Amino acid sequence: MKNILLFIKENLAVGLLLFALFLGAGNIIFPPLLGQQAGEHITSAMIGFLITGVGLPLLAIVAIAKAGGDLQILANRVGATFGIIFTSIVYLAIGPFFAVPRTGSVSYEIGIVPFLPEGAADHWAPLLITSVIFFALILVLAINPSKLVDRVGKILTPVLLGVILLLAIKSFISPMGEPGAAIGKYTSSPLTEGFVQGYLTMDVLSALVFGIVILQALRDMGMSDTKKQVKTTIFAGIVAAIGLSFVYIALGQIGNTSINAIGTFDNGGTIIAKSAEALFGTLGTIILSATILLACISTAVGLLTANAQFFNKLFPSVSYKTFLVIFTIFSAAITNVGLETIISASLPVLLIIYPLAMVLMVLSLFDNFFKGGKIVYILALIPTFFVSLNDGFKQMEITITPYVNILKALPLYEQSLAWLVPAIVGALIGFVIHKLTKK
User: Fold this and answer.
1) pTM of the predicted model, to two decimals?
2) Same structural domain for residues 117 and 253?
3) Is 352 inside a domain boundary?
4) Are 205 and 270 within one domain?
5) Are residues 373 and 318 in the same domain?
6) Are 199 and 351 a contacting pair, CB within 8 Å?
7) How remote is the C-alpha of 169 from its chain's centroid?
8) Each residue of 109-123: pLDDT tens digit?
9) Is there a single domain that holds both residue 324 and residue 399?
10) Phi-psi bin for 71: left (phi > 0), alpha (psi -120 to 50), beta?
């Protein structure tokens, strides 16, 4: 019995670590927006969102564990050049290009804007001042790594969960209002729209990077057996998945019932901030603001540190601190374009790279079945890239007519999932060629 309890305790600790890694400020702002926009179709939309926001990250963690914990090693199965390019793009996406500037913008939207005088948020100065102070603090913490960030993370996760739990309970007991009408693609295809919107959490991309953190934690616990590591990772992934599901569903419910009380917004940060005020008054806003600010600091330090370490390994002639300074200044500059612009700019890129990440991840889980045949990866990823590239163009309102006319014949084209069938067909052709070549 003691052994069983010890096993659960150790595995639960790893699961909570994984959950804490995932739970950043970005995960807080998208479910409320989905809740508002999905309206009466909230259930279908949330199922789609949970697939990309919870289910696929869990598979990604398992895939990375089986691959030895390193994204570049996994991507190298396609080719060394692809491994370097794809891994670099993933790091930059969850680093200085999108995810880190998003932490600065969310800090401003939730932590600062509610306390500004009326109309002040329309001026550029408050955001600039906030971003300078925020990223100066981030730089100090990241240049001088200490247990401070780790402690903040350990304290922050239960506090953030507690705040969300309070908001969720209050919104269920005394809802702010009824759901509004679904808008946009949520009216006709809520499931697939929720699936695509789940890309914005960047959880699959993050999972591909976090895998090595989990494996290192298991090795520190004295676990060296690969099979046991994978089993423990699956258990930890389930714990994290349950936690993330609760967070997403609770925040989706808050957004879904908020329209009558606060109105509609295109910014999830504004929705959750105004909902906190509507449910608990000024005290609710203060508690939420402080918690989100800490979450943003913890997330930004972790992501910038990971990026600086990766590119320092890739280019040893440039020091870790140099990369850190460059990425921090770049992130601060991008923050000043505003949260909505950052999200709008990130979606076309995510529509291109997310399918590649998902196909790579799924194939890696079946790697033993086709004995690591490189041709299987290549023939699955090439059509995936060309189709998802068009999805990115479509989001940017760029149309290449002959290209589009061909792709329109594919299933799920309108839902930005047309890459799915070509990826499967390409993998099957690659598998047949691999088998014939071996013979």
Assistant:
1) 0.86
2) yes
3) no
4) yes
5) no
6) yes
7) 25
8) 888 888 888 777 778
9) no
10) alpha
193, part of any domain: yes
Asked if the structure places residue 347 within a domain, the reply is no
Residue pair 65/218 in contact by the 8 Å Cβ criterion:
no
Q: Which residues of 134-173 are buried (b: 16+ CB within 10 A; e: fewer)?
A: bbeebbebbeeeeeebeebbeebbeebbebbebbbebbee
On whether both 316 and 372 belong to a single domain, the answer is no
Q: Do 271 and 414 lie in a common domain?
A: no
Q: Show the CA angle centred on residue 422, arms to residues 421 and 428, nearest 5°.
A: 95
Sequential DSSP letters for 337-356: T-HHHHHHHHHHHHHHHHHH
Amino acid 323: pLDDT: 95
Domain that holds residue 430: 366-439
Q: Which pLDDT belongs to residue 44?
A: 95
Output the CA angle 112-114-115, nearest 5 degrees. Answer: 70
Tokens 């006709």 — which residue? 188
Mean residue pLDDT of the chain comes to 85
Helices 268-314 and 320-335, axial angle in degrees (round to 10): 160
Tokens encoding 197: 């919107």
Examine residue 346 and state whether it is found in any structural domain, yes or no: no
Beta-carbon contacts of residue 184 (< 8 Å; ≥ 6 apart): 37, 193
Same domain, 192 and 287: yes
DSSP, collapsed to helix, strand or coil, labels residue 175 as coil
Q: Provide the domain count of the chain.
A: 2
Which stretches of the chain drop beneath a pLDDT of 50? none
Shared domain check, 325 and 418: no
Q: How far apart are CA 341 and CA 300, in angstroms?
A: 19
